[in-house]
Amino acid sequence: MIAEKSMPERRCVRRRRTTTHRWLLVYLLVLTLTLADAPAWSANDAFAGDLTDLSLEDLMAIEISTLSRKRQRTVDTTAAVFVITPEDIRRSGATSIPEALRMVPGLQVARISAELWAISSRGFNGLYSNKLLVLMDGRSVYNTIFSGVFWSTLDTTMENIARIEVIRGPGASLWGANAVNGVINIVTKPACDTQGALVSATGDIGKRLIGLARYGGAWGDAAHYRAHVNYTERDGGENIRGENNGDGWHIGQGGGRVDWHPSSRDSLTLTGDIYDANSNLVADYPLRLKYNCEYRGRNMLGRWQRTFSPSSDLVLQTYYSHSEMSFTTFSEALETYDLDFQHRFGIGRRQEIIWGLGWRQNDSLLESSFVIEFNPAQRVDHLYSLFAQDEIVLWPDRVALIVGSKFERNDFTGWETQPTARLRWTPHAHHTLWTAVSRAVRTPARIERDATTNQSFPLKPGGVFRIRANKQYASETLTAYEAGYRFHPQRSIGLDAALFYNQYGDLKTMDYGSSDATMVNGMRGITYGGELTVDWHPKAWWRLQAAYSHLTMNLTDPYTNDQSARLSEGQNPANQLSLRSSMDFAHGLALDLWPTFTDALPIPNLRMASHWDLDARIGWRASAHWSFELVGQNLLDNLHTEFVPEFIGVEPMQIERGVFFKVTCRF
Length: 667
What we know:
Helix content: under 10%
Number of domains: 1
Structural class: mainly beta
Radius of gyration: 25 Å
Shape: globular
CATH architecture: Beta Barrel
Mean pLDDT: 87
CATH topology: Maltoporin, Chain A
Strand content: over 45%
Low-confidence stretches: 1-49, 457-462
Number of helices: 7
Largest sheet: 22 strands, antiparallel, barrel
């Protein structure tokens, strides 16, 4: 069910498409008519929309905490950073976190089925992308059994998100193993920003249904709380043969948050969530089979922060999470206990140090079957960590050097060291240049150390082909070289560019025998490329955001004559382009257009053609309490396939054109 497979010979995936050029002409025509009519909207009757709430200077000054474990302005960061704001989410029409991540340059985001996604940063995309660390308010949601993220279980309330911080490139010096190609931290709003009641409903005809209810209140002046429940249901679609895939999915989720400030120096945050989901999974074996999948889980997090001065504080965080997955062929239960401490302080006026300690325990229990067998079935793993980072101001307001490292000990490979060195140069108030060199590792998952997988059922003489785990499987390694430039000459325009060159060693591949294969650290290679983002406000009521990314992968694999290398390379587009146009009109009306281009996926024996897409949104804020939205997605293609997973047990779905309506009431 989760075995890596060699792709059978298939014809190219065909798309039913309208003429791309015709739709692009329509898009340009809308913009032209908008500009032509612009003078008719006077300052008195124009709607005071969100586009005028934040200037580009404000956007560049948005503070993030993922890169350095402290609050710092985006413009001062020494990494490729992209921040998704609540306004970005609302104007994009995104109804899930993966949909919102499509706007980030350098990320590869592809939908597989109603519930499954392939998401990675700077290459190595797959159903379980194992080089991307994902956090929810600092809580890791990385699955240590399969080495990846189950995005369908992150069906959080989009209205509760304060921002999504995306770091492209290694973040392992502070966040540890598996933060290899990137870190995504989903930061939710404090309870004081979600006061009152909110109810929303989203739906289209037979394909999508989303309902949300949220309420926030206060206990005096020092404590605030909120609670929410939401339900999401998505219907399945057609597979690449035009048959009904029957892979529908639904999830119910609820949670809450409490923020308490007992004094001017102390703050305490408590959060908790619970979810229950059910889906159908269609297996692409020689015999087409349909499985029922159940997911459920819960988590709690507590964080205490004491501030001593603007340059000194300490944070103590602990969380517990429990998740269960039950398939027809196997089941798993995973419990995680985590404790994290960090302390920040200054030395003089030119030096600031952050250091911390961490402990984590993972308890996993897996029920085996014919398809996959774990030995041992149950195990308890521990992780101990220490990190330190020193930021040294070499030239006030001009040059700063950041050096640091994370030291971890895990039960699979022992001690791992992941250092970084970063340099920031600000020659002018409007120009920032940075460069970095880092080392990161991706530690083994249980499936690579403890599992035996049968690639197919014995439907013909000769039996099954087995993929065996390797008790000696070691960590994958990365040495990354990065550089970037930010330019923001005036309030109406800004530019952010980043380049990278990555060297990988000990990547996973297969050592094939006559009847089985063994996972080994045999592949190596390089990747390089860059990302460019331009943000422009040509008018107070109009914002344009363009993003382009390029990726080149060159991998070698002597064990499979480079077949595994070609598969890894082929699942990532070389070029991606995005242009978001957001316009505010009179009387609370708004129009958003979002055309995108994704390059071809040269998957061996199944080349998927490049394609254009267009999302559009019309919004109306009827009053302070009511808002309405009409959203169209994938408007240029009636049906298209975005990704073919590398694992047995998942048949890809063709993504359909869709139109949905959303109504929101606040009171």
